[in-house]
Amino acid sequence: MNPSELPDTDLLRAAAVTVGTEAAELVQRLRGGLDRFAGEVDTKSTETDVVTAADKASEQLVRARLAELRPGEAVLGEEGGSDSSGERLLWVVDPIDGTVNYLYGLPWYAVSVAAQFDGVTVAAAVVEPASGRVWSAVRGGGATLDGVPLRAAETTRLDLSLVGTGYAYAAERRARQADLSALLARRTRDLRRTGSAALDLCAVAAGWLDAYYEHGLGRWDWAGGSLIAEEAGAVLRLPDGSDDGLGGDITLAAAPGIAEDLAEALRVAGAAEV
Q1: Looking at the whole model, is its pTM more than 0.90?
Q2: What CATH number corresponds to the domain at position 245?
Q3: Which residues contact 194 (CB under 8 A, 6 or more apart)?
Q4: Residues 117, 183 within the same domain
Q5: GO MF terms on file (predicted)?
Q6: Collapsing DSSP states into helix, strand and coil, what is residue 149?
Q7: Rounded to an integer, what distance in angstroms lies between the CA atom of residue 89 and that of residue 80?
Q8: At 254, phi and psi to the nearest 5?
Q9: Same domain for 20 and 100?
Q10: Is residue 45 scored above 70 in pLDDT?
Q11: Nearest CA among 59, 73, 55, 84 for reference residue 11
């Protein structure tokens, strides 16, 4: 990626924030009250992998608004796939990250909108419909929560670290992930599983989690939150198929002081077999 060829990342960030905020407002209106989501619900890869009418409406809004604000640029969305034609700039969209939480009424879900250039995220926004909080970042320009700069935790002890994770929809893989978590729990302060990868990555950026890892995420799950974590100073590893003892499809973000120890603990616990 040649920096001189980059589009204006501040403009990309502004577009991500604008579109993400509008989609989040729509998502919250469609959610309604405190009961379970009453709209249309379908399933995808398994019976536990759900997609709601709000997911589809959110992505439609994001695509339409990006077409207005950034005409001609390609979009990859979790629900609608990609309309890219080899363009170097690609918008990667998760219309609701944490759909199961959304379905049940748990407020930990978000809209993620990220701009990637040559496969690398250069600007992003993650917006929480329930709270209205806006996380955003530009590559080389830092990360913020509602305009306040973020910084990853300064912890240096894995045994005193709070670590987030997540599980697959397929029961067999979820069981292997749970086994890995059980082993890692012996090496950390505690584990958290909230159900939104984007927000877990943002939590690492804020120091609310000392680290986060998960196998099997889609690009839309990590595209936005990973940049926010990285720009806050977290050590980042994205899925790349490499054989380094962690598994080629792991996403990991950690405070610098524990990154190596966490990676080694995951290797010893059998992360590559998950």
Answers
A1: yes
A2: 3.40.190.80
A3: 98, 101, 108, 164, 166, 200, 203
A4: no
A5: hydrolase activity
A6: strand
A7: 18
A8: -145, 150
A9: yes
A10: yes
A11: 73
Strand pairing class (134-138; 120-127): antiparallel
Residues 91 and 144 reside in one and the same domain: yes
Q: Which residues, 6+ apart, have CB-to-CB distance to 229 below 8 Å?
A: 143, 152, 201, 202, 204, 205, 212, 236, 253
DSSP secondary structure of 187-235: TSSEEE--S-HHHHHHHHHHTSSSEEEEES--HHHHHHHHHHHHHTT-E
pLDDT class of 85 with cuts at 50, 70, 90: low
CA within 13 Å, CB half, 246: 25
- pLDDT for res 84: 61
Q: What is the pLDDT of residues 160-170, one digit of tens each?
A: 999 999 999 89
Among 2, 85, 20, 11, smallest CA distance to 224 is for: 20
Q: Is the dihedral of CA 63, 64, 67, 68 positive or negative?
A: negative
Distance CA 88, CA 71 (A): 14
Domain range holding 261?
Answer: 158-273
Tokens of 123: 């600007």
* Contact by Cβ (8 Å): 48, 101: no
Q: What per-residue string of b and e applies to 231-259 under the rule 16 or more CB within 10 Å gives b?
A: bbbbbbbbbeeeeeebbebbbbbbbebbb
